[in-house]
């Protein structure tokens, strides 16, 4: 059999057997696909400008801010170690009582411009803001409920102030929106009776109205990130999730929407019953990343991961000593790791109720920002490089530029680089520094000399490559 034919057959076998498919992404052969009314709208990545922009931004910040910032994880003298924004649930606080916190909502230190400057300094290109978390409190004066900032001592439109300030700094704003609303009397976890059905229909109309209100009041919003969509009530109303996506896309051309919103005709979420991603990007990577070796199929679709700095605190919690707190370098490594696998990373901040940030978060933003200022070219607009991963760190790539982002320096003082067939490394330069020596050691294998660097600071080497190099060389394979 000739080699090309053999390769084609191998590829076909690979595709047909669906080798290494994602647990959630079980692709059926095309002819066996079932017809869906509310499945994926599209196969593969979106290629328009707005999506490209979303993708090239790569680094974002999450802002979790709501009434939960006031108790900060403590209720009636008891400190709960679970996520602070879930305190209402942990402490079983009835809605009426929880909403009393609105009387104390007065963030006197809040200055949207300061927040925007902090984000700018950190080097994030977008910010995802919790417009409404599960508790139901809205950061904008929604006319469809009284549970909003308008009825607090602060009174003003917090969300509006933030949108303007971030946009003024050239930072995109994305809206986090929890569909599940613990304070709305018509919310249902499941639909079991005609009464549930009627109530939930009213709830969906209320939600539509709030979303239309957000899209109309803040037309510069670039993305909606839905959460609180896992309940049976929503899974039984897949049509509504498809409708919301369509409605927002009609109102805001180019807007991007996360996969978490969607459920198909059979209540299958994120990936439809045929295994195709719904929404524009996968948003299931919460506090975790795909496996660097096994999960590289994620490069087939757009995705965005989000992470907390402590183990699992999104909203402000007064005691961060209850779980491990990641160091700035550990946060940085997750950012680089995500980009090296073709994804975005969003780092979470949980501001205090007074409108200031805790010192740990300020230090984190400054430290990341300092590194990004020097090395950001290996993040923004970069993608999966397709080169064999090495133990020293991660590759990222932008057009012809391949970046080595080094987190683990070897004792040999040589960073091993293995290139794909036909690709030669011509030159290596430290970003913000000098050229370092490159030695070819085997076929498609190089030693890149370790530069002198600041201890504890990951560094970046930019490679100049020739991809049209002849595959012919003087190396001989061993006969065994
Ligand atoms: O906003 C942040 C979190 O509050 C929210 N998403 C991020 C971005 C979130 N994280 N996890 N969850 C929502 C789902 C949580 C589910 C659980 Fe439970 C809460 C598991 C145990 C407690 C709900 C209640 C499911 C089982 C019991």
Overview of the molecule:
By secondary structure, the protein is of the alpha/beta class. Helix content is 26%, strand content 18%. It contains eleven helices and 17 strands. It has a seven-stranded parallel β-sheet with strand order 7-6-5-4-1-9-8. Strands 10-11-17-13-14 form a five-stranded antiparallel β-sheet. A three-stranded antiparallel β-sheet has the order 12-16-15, with no helix packed on it. Strand 8, helix 10 and strand 9 form a beta-alpha-beta unit. Helix 5 crosses helix 6. The structure holds ligand H79. The site of ligand H79 has 7 residues, from loops.
Task: Evaluate the radius of gyration.
Answer: 25 Å
Low-confidence segments, given as residue ranges, are: 1-23
Q: So, CATH architecture of the largest domain?
A: Alpha-Beta Barrel
* Bound ligands, each once: ligand H79
In N-to-C order, the SSE pattern is HHEEEHHHEHEHEHHEEHEHEEEEEEEE
Shape: globular
Fourth CATH level, the homologous superfamily of the largest domain: Glycosidases
Structure annotation, total helices: 11
Largest sheet: number of strands, sense, barrel closure: 7 strands, parallel
Q: How many domain modules? A: 2
Q: What structural category do the secondary elements indicate? A: alpha/beta
Kindly report how far apart the N and C termini lie.
23 Å
Please count the beta strands (DSSP E, at least 2 residues each): 17
Q: Could you report the average pLDDT, rounded to the nearest whole number? A: 93
The CATH topology annotation of the largest domain reads as TIM Barrel
Instruction: Give the CATH class of the largest domain.
Output: Alpha Beta
Walk across the major sheet and give the strand order.
Answer: 7-6-5-4-1-9-8
User: What portion of the residues fall into strands of 2 or more residues?
Assistant: 15-25%
Helix content: 25-40%
